[in-house]
């Protein structure tokens, strides 16, 4: 400790506060084009890894708009940890994948999927989670209760045992309700970086509408996949088994052909550059917290739209 050579007065200032005030940080907002992720839905992103996971990294085959959108967000996240991101639907022909020949609309986000499902407009068994040709690299493999060919299933080694009858169904007089589900990359490995890699495995799900697992959680396979999978939705589940979706009490679920591989296809990235729908979602100050609006990759019309549709509408942020 320093000392005084000559007599004098020493004054020390000591901070007795017990807390360190948080440093305020800006929350950004951006609407743009991405290869993957929910469409027309505000998603809070905290870092670059999360950005790549949710919305996909650009590739050499990506269009310029996708790369500009991604790196605008990534550069902002170099200095901040809160960015409200909206993916815009890049054209009416952007189509969610199906495992059949049907195509013609995009499933934008979970709310949109549920609305289509409630209306009975989903005619395929599996749909990719979001629009974009990236999902053409996905395959889904299922195996229902069937002990005749389980050993031949290429994914059998990923499960502890073959599917059969769940405890829940057995206690209620039901049988053969279980199903295993695998979601995998194809030989392109777009999602994992490893061709053929398993992305998700869902063991011992039930085809019973009211089924519960050992912890009392919903175990109906359609609900579990739709709530937990990052890659697919289950649409018309009776295409797996005519009995799927029935109450398990005294229900003997039909044993159908197993080792079924479903290749997702018919997707497209679409075309067009309008971002108005995304900008509108950032305009409500009561629902979305933003202070800075990024315009990377925007043309003059889009920049003016960001000013008019967001900043002037909110009056609490800058573009």
Please explain how this structure is put together.
With 319 residues, the chain is α+β, with helices and mostly antiparallel strands. The chain has seven helices and ten strands. The strands form three sheets. The protein has a four-stranded mixed sheet, sandwiched between helices. The model is unreliable at 91-100 (pLDDT under 50).
Strands, helices and their partners?
Elements (H helix, E strand, L loop, with lengths): L27 E5 L10 E3 L2 H8 L8 H13 L6 E5 L22 H9 L7 E3 L9 E7 L22 H4 L7 E8 L12 E9 L14 H8 L3 E3 L25 E4 L12 H6 L10 E2 L6 H15 L5
Parallel strand pairs: 1-3, 1-10
Antiparallel strand pairs: 2-3, 4-8, 5-6, 5-9, 6-7
Notable traits:
319 residues; alpha+beta; Rossmann fold; 2 domains; four-stranded mixed beta sheet; four-stranded antiparallel beta sheet; 10 strands; 15% strand
Tell me what portion of residues adopts beta-strand conformation. Answer: 15-25%
Largest beta-sheet details: 4 strands, mixed
The strands making up the biggest β-sheet line up spatially as 2-3-1-10
What is the count of structural domains? Answer: 2
């Amino acid at each position: 400790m320093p000392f005084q050579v000559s007599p004098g007065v020493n004054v020390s200032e000591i901070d007795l506060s017990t807390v360190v005030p948080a440093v305020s940080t800006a929350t950004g907002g951006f609407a743009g084009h991405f290869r993957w992720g929910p469409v027309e839905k505000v998603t809070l992103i905290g870092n670059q890894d999360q950005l790549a996971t949710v919305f996909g990294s650009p590739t050499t085959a990506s269009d310029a708009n996708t790369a500009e959108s991604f790196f605008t967000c990534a550069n902002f996240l170099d200095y901040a940890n809160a960015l409200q991101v909206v993916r815009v639907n890049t054209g009416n022909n952007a189509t969610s994948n199906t495992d059949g020949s049907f195509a013609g609309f995009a499933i934008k986000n979970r709310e949109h999927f549920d609305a289509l499902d409630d209306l009975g407009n989903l005619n395929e068994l599996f749909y990719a989670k979001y629009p974009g040709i990236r999902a053409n690299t996905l395959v889904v493999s299922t195996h229902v209760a069937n002990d005749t060919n389980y050993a031949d299933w290429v994914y059998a080694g990923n499960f502890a045992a073959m599917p059969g009858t769940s405890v829940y169904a057995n206690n209620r007089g039901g049988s053969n309700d279980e199903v295993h589900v695998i979601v995998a990359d194809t030989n392109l490995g777009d999602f994992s970086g490893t061709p053929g890699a398993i992305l998700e495995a869902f063991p011992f799900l039930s085809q019973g509408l009211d089924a519960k697992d050992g912890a009392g959680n919903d175990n109906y396979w359609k609900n579990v996949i739709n709530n937990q999978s990052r890659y697919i939705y289950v649409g018309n589940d009776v295409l797996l088994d005519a009995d799927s979706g029935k109450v398990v009490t005294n229900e003997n679920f039909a044993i159908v052909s197993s080792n079924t591989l479903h290749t997702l296809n018919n997707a497209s990235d679409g075309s067009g550059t309008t971002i108005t729908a995304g900008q509108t979602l950032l305009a409500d100050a009561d629902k979305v917290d933003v202070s800075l609006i990024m315009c990377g990759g925007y043309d003059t019309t889009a920049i003016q739209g960001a000013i008019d549709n967001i900043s002037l509408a909110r009056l609490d942020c800058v573009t």
